[in-house]
Write a structure and sequence with these properties.
This protein is 26% helix and 22% strand. The protein contains 13 helices and 19 strands. Strand 15 and strand 16 form a beta hairpin. Helix 2 runs parallel beside helix 6 and helix 2 crosses helix 7. It is globular, with a radius of gyration of 26 Å. The protein starts with 10 loop residues before the first helix and ends in a 24-residue tail after the last strand.
Length: 462
């Protein structure tokens, strides 16, 4: 076990992490398992367990990562959007005509709401060569849809094949070549490849009722590659986790990766009960009071999990070389929890704002929507927040637009415009937020309150 940051974890935390992966490898009967933990933007712990005596796998040994590949593909699509080459609301047909699935939007493909089948027709695509599916029609089949477009979440591997084809169409180059030039090289993910490169683990099937193993075939997935082809290491995925939490302007902005992490698909009832949702190429889960984002992956012979708690600034990666075995996504979530609970994040020191717009400062404080008390607060990034003074309710962050207005970033008011309205004398009479009127006093006198005010005003019962 090694650490790669000067800020080492406490010995008790390191032992708890080792115990968790040792239990997972033993109970899950995995030939090997390797893990990494990231905190503060750096890998702070690596651990592994193996059934082979001697040196175990380290952070440079490749494992196949399956559907974590989809997150890489989604990054490429968001790059196209940010460059103005497409809009997520565009139907696929606009950019990639003739697929038979062109009614679905690019956002729906990213979020698995395009109604497409979960798998490709024909023999099990993960254990057969991609040459059996040389055309998109071979991947989609004669009836590609299983549900109406946009109506429900239905995980679809062929949907990400279409996204890979879209990338190739707009970039004029193979998916893997585009990925390497636009994501892997800038992020220094040199051990993430389409084909295995030594040192790499072999994939195994472990018999469910006996401690014996069977080697699994390694296939080139062909057109299905954007859904699950990649090989990577715990070291590379640790760096990728930092990018997914913080963004990197060389690849994708912090705002765009935040968009990827935001739920975009309606969850199925069992997923609602489990606190699960799906964003744009990223899974979203609620476990033990914290929100985790990332992705899981599996292909015959391999299991992979990447989980990030952005709030705790902690991420974990777990890779194993068995077809079924330890629940690696759960193990990764446990590694995040162990560090977050044993060594909670120390807040940054409070500091006053370097400068403040006095006209905005005058807006700070209590406001009333009808009789509901709200507070407007300034934030360190130049924006504001508006939310209930107490209890639950509609609470949102707002971005300053530079013209005296603010745009909602999250919550009920996401995308809505907040503006301060001045009266004839130049003083602010009320805030307007998506037609809602906020006043300094409940139903403030003189403000344009819909329905008007009773002329007798506030009174008790006679």
């Amino acid at each position: 076990m090694t650490t790669t940051s000067a800020e080492e974890l406490l010995p008790a935390t390191r032992r708890a992490l080792l115990h968790r992966i040792a239990t997972a490898q033993a109970q899950g009967r995995a030939p090997s398992l390797v893990a990494a933990v990231v905190r503060g933007g750096h890998a702070v712990w690596h651990g592994s367990r193996t059934s082979v005596d001697g040196h175990g796998p380290d952070e440079n040994v490749q494992y196949r990562i399956g559907s974590i590949t989809k997150t890489f593909t989604a990054v490429l699509v968001l790059r196209l959007r940010d460059e103005g080459l497409l809009d997520l609301g565009d139907p696929l047909e606009k950019h990639l005509p003739g697929t038979g699935a062109g009614e679905a939007t690019i956002a729906e493909l990213l979020a698995h709401t395009a109604g497409l089948a979960a798998e490709s027709p024909g023999p099990w695509w993960e254990r057969t060569p991609g040459s059996l599916r040389p055309e998109l029609a071979d991947v989609l089949g004669e009836q590609p849809h299983r549900h109406p477009v946009g109506r429900r979440f239905h995980y679809s591997n062929p949907g990400y094949t279409l996204l890979g084809a879209l990338i190739e169409e707009l970039r004029g180059a193979p998916w893997e070549e585009v990925l390497r030039g636009e994501v892997l090289e800038p992020l220094k993910l040199h051990r993430t490849t389409g084909q295995p490169q030594a040192p790499h683990a072999g994939g195994w099937a472990v018999h469910p009722w006996a401690d014996v193993m069977l080697p699994e075939p390694v296939e080139d997935l062909g057109l299905m590659a954007p859904a699950g082809q990649l090989w990577s290491t715990s070291g590379d995925l640790a760096r990728f986790a930092v990018f997914l939490a913080r963004g990197d302007d060389r690849v994708l902005s912090a705002e765009s990766v935040r968009e990827m992490r935001t739920p975009a698909a309606p969850a199925e009832p069992e997923e609602v009960a489990a606190g699960a949702a799906y964003g744009l190429g990223m899974q979203v889960q609620h476990r033990n009071g914290r929100t985790l984002v990332g992705h899981g992956g599996s292909l015959p012979g391999f299991l992979a999990g990447l989980m990030i708690s952005v709030e705790d600034d902690i991420a974990a990666v777990v890779l194993a070389n068995c077809t079924s075995g330890p629940p690696v996504a759960t193990v990764a979530a446990d590694l995040v929890r162990i560090v977050a609970e044993a060594e909670p994040r120390i807040p940054e020191p409070w500091r006053p704002l370097p400068e403040v717009d006095r006209t905005v400062l005058e807006l700070a404080g209590p406001w009333y929507w009808g009789t509901h008390a709200f507070a407007l607060r300034l934030t360190s990034d130049g924006g504001v927040t508006l939310g209930p003074l107490a209890g639950n309710g509609r609470r949102s962050r707002f971005r300053a637009e530079g013209d005296g207005t603010w745009t909602g970033l999250d919550g009920y008011y996401a995308g809505e415009l907040l503006r301060a309205v001045e009266g004839p004398g130049g003083s602010v009479t009320h805030l307007d937020l998506g037609s809602f009127v906020f006043t300094r006093q409940p139903y403030g006198e003189g403000a344009p309150i819909p329905g008007g005010m009773d002329p007798e005003g506030w009174r008790g019962i006679k």
